[in-house]
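Final report, closing paragraph on structural work. Over the funding period we assembled a curated collection of sequence-structure pairs, and we close with a single example.
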Amino acid sequence: MTDPRPGRAKRSLGQNFLVDPNLQRKIVAAVGAGPDDEVVEIGPGRGALTEHLAGRVRRLVLVELDDDLASQLADRYAGRDDVVVLHGDVLKTDWTDQLEDPAQARVVGNIPYNITSPIVFRVLEQPRPHSIVLLMQKEVAERIAAPVGTKAYGALSVGVRAVARAERLFGVGRNAFRPVPGVDSAVVRLTPNRPVSVRPEDEVQLRRLTRATFQWRRKQMQKTLRDHPDLRLTPDQVVAACSAAGIEPTFRPEELAPDTFVALARALP
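Its predicted structure, as stored:
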């Protein structure tokens, strides 16, 4: 959440208001939105980022779960055709019908730490937006951008980077928020791949594959593909799938790039 003024945050909603005005402007600048753009803001809170966007973009769609904050935003922007307030859960709310072209929209948000991954995958659902700028827990940002072969590289890294380019833009210290969280944060930009290269059915298989292989991340791929209860390939199927993806059955999951995981997912029976 973002907030230029002091106020009580709700722990149950994971609210930490960004109060540093320089960082607010820096995040909005990273969105890169102009007067012809449509922007979706997740969790606008009391409107610190909103105030930098409203009137500067063609259409601004605000998705806010908090009853009081959604009401305040609706009152503040009442009568304006260029600002829409959607009162609801971002994981369940469909904002695409508020946009002329969802594939060209830009998304921005300071998202709650406790549901970061679900929100990331929600905003990456098709039709994927033009770009996504999110303020999130530092450790999650590092996992998304982690190089192949590192300890932080895992199912989240693969799931995001199979469909988008990920950039860690800058860090945000915990003292930039009120209340002060127990962790630092970072801003990440996700740019969905164009043209879309991963089909919806591939994404389902990819999630199944990455969950299984990174649960058993120290095991060789051949063992996980054969023995994990979510996969259960026969020995011949293991050989065929690995051959189709161009990998050795003895590889471990952290050695496989996102594109290789996609190829392997497509080869699963």
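The domain at 200-267 is CATH 1.10.8.100 (Helicase, Ruva Protein; domain 3). The chain has a mean pLDDT of 93. We thank the funder for supporting this effort.
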